[in-house]
Amino acid sequence: MAIRLTSCGETNVGRKRTHNEDNLLVFPERNLFVVADGMGGHACGEVASQIVVEYMRDYFGRALGDPEATWPGREERGLTESENMLNAGIRWCNYCIWEKGHADNRFKNMGTTVVGFHIDDEYVTVAHVGDSRCYRFRAGHLEQVTEDHSLLNDYKRMAVLTPEEEANFPHKNIIVRACGLKEDVKVDVQKQKPLVGDIFMLCSDGLSGEVPDEQIRDIMARENGDLQKMVSRLIQTACENGGKDNVTCIAVRIEGV
Question: Which residue, 96, 118, 145, 215, has most beta carbons within 10 Å?
Answer without folding.
Answer: 118
